[in-house]
Amino acid sequence: MAQPRWISRSTLVVAGLFAAAALTACGSDTSPAPTGSSSSTTGSATATSAGKTTTSAPTTTLEISDASATQLCDMIRPELSNWRVQGPTLGRIGLNALVHEWALRNGGINGHVLADKAMIDRITAKSCADVHQQAIEALELPDLASGIAF
Questions:
Q1: Is 27 left (phi over 0), alpha (psi -120 to 50) or beta?
Q2: Backbone angles phi, psi at 114, to 5 degrees
Q3: CA-CA distance, 132 to 120, in Å (whole number)?
Q4: Is the separation of the CB atoms in 53 and 43 below 8 Å?
Q5: Which residues of 69-101 are buried (b: 16+ CB within 10 A; e: fewer)?
Q6: DSSP letters along 68-98, please?
Q7: Residue 46 forms beta bridges with which residues?
Q8: Could you give the 3-state DSSP secondary structure of residue 30?
Q9: How confident is the model at residue 128 (pLDDT cuts 50, 70, 90)?
Q10: CA separation, residue 149 to residues 20, 55, 97, 117, 127 (Å)
Q11: Contact, 57 vs 66, CB < 8 A?
C-alpha cells in the first residue's frame, strides 16, 4: 500500500518518538542493551519519612561505541544543509527527531540521552568536531544538548 504524499519520513519518525516516549513514561523497557556499548549505572535507594523508597539518578554515563558515534555523525552530516535552509526553529525539531531516531537504533537509549543530553555534544565533538560545530551554528544553539527537547 502506498503512503499518502503528505506522510514523510520525518512525520513517521516523530510519531515513533511519541510512541517511544509513551512507553518510557509508562516504565516499559523491553529493549536490548545498546550494541557495541556498555553501561555502568548505579543508583541508591533512599527511604523517605512517608515510608516510601526513592531511587536516585544513575551516577555514571553511558559509554557509546565508536561505530555508534560514527553513525550519529553520519546521520547529522547530510542534514546540515537542510537546517541552514529551514532555519533554526525547524532545524531544532529535525535535530531532536534525528537524535531520538539514533537512540532508538542503538538499543533504545532514549532515556539515557534525556538524562544526559550533553552526551550528544561529547560524542559529536569527539567523533566529528566539524559536524558538531556546523550543527551548532546552523541551529543557532550554544550546544546540541540545548536542542534536545524530549
A1: left
A2: -65, -35
A3: 9
A4: no
A5: bebbbeebeebbeebeebebeebbbbbbbbbbb
A6: HHHHHHHHHGGGHHHHHHH-HHHHHHHHHHH
A7: 54
A8: coil
A9: very high
A10: 14, 24, 9, 9, 23
A11: no
Show the cell assigned to 146: 540545548
Q: Give just the sign of the alpha carbon dihedral 101, 72, 117, 88.
A: negative
Residue whose entry in the numeric block shows the C-alpha cell 502506498: 2
Between 127 and 24, residue with greater pLDDT: 127
If we measure between CA atoms, which residue out of 150, 144, 146 comes closest to residue 76?
A: 144
Q: What is the pLDDT of residue 10?
A: 52
* 3-state SS, residue 144: helix
Per the CB < 8 A criterion, the answer to whether 103 and 110 are in contact is yes
Q: Which residue has the cell 533512599?
A: 46
Tell me the three cell numbers of residue 138: 546552523
